[in-house]
Amino acid sequence: xxxxxxxxxxxxxxxxxxxxxxxxxxxxxxxxxxxxxxxxxxxxxxxxxxxxxxxxxxxxxxxxxxxxxxxxxxxxxxxxx
Amino acid sequence: xxxxxxxxxxxxxxxxxxxxxxxxxxxxxxxxxxxxxxxxxxxxxxxxxxxxxxxxxxxxxxxxxxxxxxxxxxxxxxxxxxxxxxxxxxxxxxxxxxxxxxxxxxxxxxxxxxxxxxxxxxxxxxxxxxxxxxxxxxxxxxxxxxxxxxxxxxxxxxxxxxxxxxxxxxxxxxxxxxxxxxxxxxxxxxxxxxxxxxxxxxxxxxxxxxxxxxxxxxxxxxxxxxxxxxxxxxxxxxxxxxxxxxxxxxxxxxxxxxxxxxxxxxxxxxxxxxxxxxxxxxxxxxxxxxxxxxxxxxxxxxxxxxxxxxxxxxxxxxxxxxxxxxxxxxxxxxxxxxxxxxxxxxxxxxxxxxxxxxxxxxxxxxxxxxxxxxxxxxxxxxxxxxxxxxxxxxxxxxxxxxxxxxxxxxxxxxxxxxxxxxxxxxxxxxxxxxxxxxxxxxxxxxxxxxxxxxxxxxxxxxxxxxxxxxxxxxxxxxxxxxxxxxxxxxxxxxxxxxxxxxxxxxxxxxxxxxxxxxxxxxxxxxxxxxxxxxxxxxxxxxxxxxxxxxxxxxxxxxxxxxxxxxxxxxxxxxxxxxxxxxxxxxxxxxxxxxxxxxxxxxxxxxxxxxxxxxxxxxxxxxxxxxxxxxxxxxxxxxxxxxxxxxxxxxxxxxxxxxxxxxxxxxxxxxxxxxxxxxxxxxxxxxxxxxxxxxxxxxxxxxxxxxxxxxxxxxxxxxxxxxxxxxxxxxxxxxxxxxxxxxxxxxxxxxxxxxxxxxxxx
Amino acid sequence: xxxxxxxxxxxxxxxxxxxxxxxxxxxxxxxxxxxxxxxxxxxxxxxxxxxxxxxxxxxxxxxxxxxxxxxxxxxxxxxxxxxxxxxxxxxxxxxxxxxxxxxxxxxxxxxxxxxxxxxxxxxxxxxxxxxxxxxxxxxxxxxxxxxxxxxxxxxxxxxxxxxxxxxxxxxxxxxxxxxxxxxxxxxxxxxxxxxxxxxxxxxxxxxxxxxxxxxxxxxxxxxx
Lengths: 81, 761, 224
Prior knowledge:
The complex is a heterotrimer of chains A (81), B (761) and C (224).
Chain A: E1 2-10, H1 17-28, E2 41-47, H2 53-67, E3 73-80
Chain B: H1 5-10, H2 25-35, H3 41-50, H4 53-56, H5 61-69, E1 77-79, E2 87-91, E3 94-102, H6 104-109, H7 111-127, E4 132-142, H8 148-168, E5 172-179, E6 188-198, E7 213-218, H9 228-234, H10 241-244, H11 253-268, E8 274-277, H12 282-293, E9 297-301, H13 314-319, E10 325-330, H14 335-344, E11 349-356, E12 361-365, E13 368-373, H15 375-379, H16 395-400, H17 412-423, H18 432-435, E14 446-448, E15 455-458, E16 466-472, H19 475-480, H20 482-499, E17 503-512, H21 519-539, E18 543-549, E19 553-554, E20 557-558, E21 562-571, E22 588-592, H22 603-609, H23 621-636, E23 642-645, H24 650-662, E24 666-668, H25 676-681, E25 688-692, H26 694-706, E26 711-717, E27 733-736, E28 740-743, H27 744-759
Parallel strand pairs in B: 4-5, 9-12, 17-18, 24-27
Antiparallel strand pairs in B: 1-2, 2-3, 3-6, 4-6, 7-10, 7-11, 8-10, 9-11, 12-13, 14-15, 15-16, 16-21, 17-21, 19-20, 22-25, 22-26, 23-25, 24-26, 27-28
Chain C: E1 2-7, H1 14-24, E2 27-32, E3 43-46, H2 66-76, E4 81-84, H3 86-93, E5 100-102, E6 110-118, E7 134-141, E8 145-147, H4 150-158, E9 162-166, E10 178-182, E11 188-191, H5 210-223
Parallel strand pairs in C: 1-2, 1-3, 3-4, 4-11
Antiparallel strand pairs in C: 5-8, 6-7, 6-9, 9-10, 10-11
């Protein structure tokens, strides 16, 4: 049993309208000095058996092609035993 | 290190990457001749993007001139071609502006954002004329429905169109969804917007008044789509795709909504002297065009531009295509009021420049001069090419390969099977999987929307004055004969507008073609523009604007020539509109026009036989005009319950759509002298099906006879046919006497299942 | 009767709601999100749209607007409030109504003419309907799936607070086909479909939506 955690964020140069709107709201609600807010998403994938070799490579490939859109998003992936 | 003007003078032989930026050597040398030195890197960026095909229309200009030269005389045109969008008088002091633009290549790279920003761009074009946007429409074209890449791009594009337009609060009232092999790898995403304003509120993009201020407002500038205009729109995709992809523009419809509200407020408050939206080529385009159209000079402090990414270089800032930005010319006295209205809508605004009469566009970056150019040479005096063109070597063979020998259904049973097959063909099937993702109700003025012939909205709630729009193109016809194909697109769009009861006033277009460097593609373009210009002259409706998209091809294979034509019409009172659904039992169904054995380029030849060849249906624009006058008179005088144009799929498709919309069956028959198959599936132009109450029959047929428009009674609405045909008594059926009977339930199933079966996941 | 119509940044159906109020015979009063003054209105409509772009969560940012700081206590005090679509989402985020609205189970935005059954006619916004009346009004949302935990659902069902239910098709996966609910007192109503787009035969699928707007005028006359 392995747990894969994939965090997906818009690439830094890509506009994040959601983050921008949240940033505005934080300011209006009195939190000063908010410089930037970026909103991302997290996938928690539980998989039977060990995740290594080809399966790990496939997971990594799918994280880059399915879970994230390589045109506009970056991802990081970590595996917890 | 910043490349300043002084530096360019001192180090004049410094090699520059003009070719990588898409400029030819002679173009680069012309820039050097204009400036009397090498351009700075910022200047090079500006020229390269403004002289790209997308911005300069350098290959199409010599052909597009016909739209002005052959324009019919009309009082309806308040602002002609050349501005962001033409403006048409629709009466009672109201003016309307409308335009279509392509966002084809960006939508292939990133379907959702490409389509979304396409909608955003065209909406800003409309608000920059001073108009409040009323509605949007999206003509879309894809590869085969079942192709894997179609399943990638279609849902994303549809979601992007909907996601942006819905969030903006603009009803989506029509458009097209077309499938053809040639669009695989090169989908077409065309976006149309229409807006209205009072005559006195028309605003033009010019920087008038020395000393007036240039205000940049809206979203901050980031690294979006840098070089997108020249790279994304001017070059085909290579096999080594992703590495060359520049960053994608991301749309923020919420910001655009605020921008619309803020812009309309400052315009109505009289705080703006000139206005321009920022689209392709961003600040380069806006400043050079505003300066060129106004006093002729402008100075810009580029370091004042509010940035999302502080690391952007001045060249990148000039070329950035960040969305949801506008540029306004404001007098110093009005500046505070302008900024205050922006603040009310949470829109950031900053003064970035000043209008002068120096005849130069100068740009400083932290005190150093980085641009010093005559703005006209950037904006309006780009290169113009007389691209060579010739009739394709294969054209004669294509036209000789007629569909005459294709096997046809021989009896009623086969006709029935053909009908059920045809109504489910991807091009004829219900598009509600797509259109149900679009809000057609918002603003509360939508009178007709898809699947009606045209989209119709009320402009004036007091008087009921409204407009109707349709966009159309059968690219197969255009491939068989681009001249006739463009006129058939015009004719169909015209017919769709008159079917609703509106009087056509003006034309816009979105000309999607392959590479202009291919003389055979260029011939298609030349023929299509000539056909469209001649057709508009004959119908008496001017082209008010449009857009050209070249390089739509995958490898050496160009798309079908696709001159999408949009016709706008006016209706005095939308209460008089003619919908497509027929009314109660006993109403009479008439076919107007002549049915000929015309199957070249038809949906039947395409879907059933995969055949494309022959000559497209005859074009008779005088007949189209007569048909239009009859349909408008029928609407105005209350003689018609319903009307629906006959085009793709023929009379059979028209009758099925009317029956399914109303949910009531009908008994139909084939008029004398026409072969049943030709009657049902032929695609002769100049036809419409109308439904007439019995009380109006005599008046209507006499009008048609007096005007010499053929009118054949082909059926009667009848909800009680089920039992006689061997079904339950309540079953609604479409019966073709002596041929076959089919239930609406079967038709509905066949018509509605196609798209969901492939796209619903 | 003066009916306030609130505009947040990104509100879209405010002019439609105002038009519906006018057609019903009321006087629409524009209320601005940044202003905590309710201008003495007799009732308030929170219209549809994408306030703050629907970013973060639908209605989550609007819930903190100055106008809400006045509206929430007023609603708790009995002021009639109708939240339509995005307005319904704002009411849930404000905890004036239980539950939440999440992404449609189809994952697509959907726009269709929707059949509903009116199940409660003693709220301030539904009094002009008959019990069990079936109506057709437009529905258009991307995040209209009504959810709440089972206990809450049982509770609102038990108290008869489901005011309208989807018929024929559940367009967004809402629990128990719930299209609209009210608070216990019946003055605050949230509805996912759009009655304000069904007030003119010319532009709507019916004029069934008018009943919501005439109802509040009727009940206000009754309470005066």
